[in-house]
Amino acid sequence: MQKLKKLEERIGYRFKDFSLLETAMTHSSYAHERNIQSYERLEFLGDAVLNFTVAVEIFRSHPDKDEHFLTDLKSAYVNRNYLHRLGKKLGLGEILRHSGPKNIRLDQAVEALIGAIYIDGGYLYAKNFIKKFILSKEIKPLKDYKGLIKTVSMKIFNKDVVYKVEKEFGPPHKKMFQITAKIPGEKISATAIGKTKREAEMKTSKILLRKLRYPTPNPQT
Amino acid sequence: MQKLKKLEERIGYRFKDFSLLETAMTHSSYAHERNIQSYERLEFLGDAVLNFTVAVEIFRSHPDKDEHFLTDLKSAYVNRNYLHRLGKKLGLGEILRHSGPKNIRLDQAVEALIGAIYIDGGYLYAKNFIKKFILSKEIKPLKDYKGLIKTVSMKIFNKDVVYKVEKEFGPPHKKMFQITAKIPGEKISATAIGKTKREAEMKTSKILLRKLRYPTPNPQT
């Protein structure tokens, strides 16, 4: 209770219906044993509110960028690791009621918190939270990895990375691509799967960067 | 021009900025050659508006359902095939300006149209469009497939389907699962990949249903 009050101060929002905040801070492992509500429904809602808000805000703030850039930038802002770190910063790790697993993913709790604010106060308050705690930080879109590994590979090996589609899965309208990235003649490669070739390439690029011990920028560390 | 006017009538919304509607009905293949704007940015925005609206509406209309049900139901409403059929019904196939590919996916144009309405008239008009043309139809959540194939398999073979995780890909926080579904002792199986085991199981169930020539319910025909 005391902890939840402090959380309200930290986020600058006071709940009319305090039980919404309690539910948002209740993991299913805790709720299940006690037969009370957990945060999952609020997380479902908060995820939608978050994606919408980020999409609208970056659409407006980047009138000259194409949809690829916008998609990548949105991915970076709704990224699990990024949200998990925000959850940590807000102290949700100490507030969340759970039993069982020690390493709870706090990104879900952040989304549940957004969902709770949306229900309790309406869209504007949820938007304010997202602007203040999520969009306020300038981050780079995910796709930078492909450009970055190219630069790094040219610098170290004087060779560019080669991407190859290894497999395609799934029905025509919902294909998945498995891609392998190699640096020709070097013993370094990476394989990843993505909903688009670009997504899979991005993932392999990130793995290569790690293998070369090159620090990957926020929020994908 | 005449066609676009008729589209306005059909959807019951008149654009203040008519060029937004024109852009929403311009495929990249057409735009590219002429160096004009295509619908992709609007599609990015419309996709976010659509997902948000569907999530909020079904969250409210199904207070007793858990997040799995909500996720599956949302997937069914934002499903590409479902939106493609709506695009067809609205006559977008004849309106969309494109050159090159014959089988244009109209789901993207529907999303672009939603994005255009959102920009032109604000959220309420976009929401009205979504309620009128997308949420008005009662559809079943995707997960029914698993229950359906079970019923069908019991009826035909007197055996239940067995699902097996064949592979796991990706980093711990973004795992992908490859699952194979079999009916023991029968020469029928299906393999699919999903972000969750449930999603992969659902996909294999759908494939099995097709193989058994069992009609899969809307909107996943």
TrEMBL record, chains A, B:
* SUPFAM superfamilies membership: dsRNA-binding domain-like (SSF54768), RNase III domain-like (SSF69065)
Q: Fetch the CDD domains from UniProt.
A: DSRM_RNAse_III_family, RIBOc
A GO BP annotation = mRNA processing
Q: Which co-factors does it depend on?
A: Mg(2+)
- Which is a Gene Ontology cellular component entry for this protein? cytoplasm
- What UniProt keywords apply to this chain's record, in alphabetical order? Cytoplasm, Endonuclease, Hydrolase, Magnesium, Metal-binding, mRNA processing, Nuclease, RNA-binding, rRNA processing, rRNA-binding, tRNA processing
| Catalysed reactions, semicolon-separated | Endonucleolytic cleavage to 5'-phosphomonoester
| Quaternary structure and partners | Homodimer.
Q: What is this protein called?
A: Ribonuclease 3
**Where does this protein come from, organism-wise?**
candidate division TA06 bacterium ADurb.Bin131
| Gene (name only) | rnc
